[in-house]
Amino acid sequence: MIEDDNIIPRGPFKGKKIEFASTTGIDMFLEIAEDFMERIFGFEPGDYLITDESILFDFTGVDKMEIPEVHKKIQEEYDLDVSDILSGNLMEIFMRVHRKKYGPPL
What we know:
By secondary structure, the protein is mainly alpha-helical. The protein has helices spanning 24-28, 30-41, 67-78, 90-102. The chain has one domain.
């Protein structure tokens, strides 16, 4: 890909560069991420884009679910309370799911 491919050619953001957030962390928890997105939001792999900076709020309104309902569904599906993760960061939630499933890292 050529560097100029990421530059917006016209419109109000003309000349601005598009840069996606990293997915390095999400890639480490890919299995959990795919399971989570399907169980919580009903998305199949390839139906969504999430990055290390994605948050629950990015998906509120999906099936008219709001944050308290999403927290409740996570509690039901994973037996895990994530309501204290105020940012709603998916990476933090996936790490918590991983710890619950596999225990803390050595």
